[in-house]
Structures are given as C-alpha cells and as structure tokens.
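haha ok so turns out i had the wrong file open the whole time. this is the CORRECT one, sorry everyone. sequence first:
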Amino acid sequence: MIGNDIVDLQLAKEQSDWTRKGFLDKQFSEVEQQIIVKAENPFQQVWLFWSMKEAAYKCYTQLNQKRFFAPKKLRCKMRSSNEGIVTFEEHVFYTFSKINAQFIHSLAKQSLQQRSICSDFLIDNNVGESQYVKSQILANFPKNTILKKDNFGVPSLYEKQKLPTAISLTHHGNYGGFAYLKY
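then structure:
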C-alpha cells in the first residue's frame, strides 16, 4: 500500500492559523508539539508532520477499508530532515518528503524495500484539480486504463480488470501529486 499528501504552503499560510489556541493540541502528540516549538521553522514542521500523517492515513485506509479522523493518534518521528516514520496502532509507515518554499509532498509506504513511483506538479487550473491529477497518473499507464474510487475513496486502476497496483492521489491549492506501487 502507498499514500501521499501535498501541502501548498502559501495556501496553508493564508487559510490555517496553526498558532491559534488548541490547534496543536488537537492534531499533534506532546512529543510532536515539542519538536514543532523547538524547530528552526515551526510553520514548516507543522505542515511536514501533517503531510506525513495524511500520507500514512491513506496507506492505512487502503489496508483496512476504514476511515476516521484522529490525526493525533498517528505518531511522527523524524529519521532525517526529510525521512520519517509514522505509527498508528500496530502499523508502521515509512515516509519520504520533498520540501521546498512552495510545497511539502510526502510519500508513505509500509516497507523501505517497496519500489514506488512518486511525482508532484503544478496544477493546471484550466482543467480542474481532480481531473488534472487523474490525467497525470493515467499518463503512466496504457491509454485504456481508467481510475475508480471505492466507497472509502480509495482509488484503483482498471484495464479490463483491476490492475495489481496501489495508487494515491493528492492535491492542495496550486499543487498536485500522485504515487503508485506495482505488485
């Protein structure tokens, strides 16, 4: 299974006040809050943890067909400035993040050995966010491949039958991303 999440940092700055009372308490563990407060760039650390949690959540949803909102229960630990581990219950997800001034894009997977493809891009707003993200991932597969989401919002690829692939789509503001893993 695979997950990914992207955060448009300019949009996050405009729409989300992470410094407001109670925000950190609702989203992050005590340890994560301490890391955020001590970080050289607390704003960036908040959205790095957020994107790691979202990417791991997408992996978990693919595995368990269960949706929930409990970001505080997903626990982040950094292995380096752009690599981390997210744990939830007995599950462990390894994350890899691309961080720049425009966005943070995180990929999560169950194993370090899983070979995955991950890409991020600027959204073409003339096409529409969702449609553009779908077109970007479908460009990597044969022309007659289609994308369908199940009742839990988990996407799958089909070419006559379901392909042996795990995929994840994301978009936020001006940016989109995808990740896939072939079995």
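The chain has five helices and eleven strands.
again sry for the mixup
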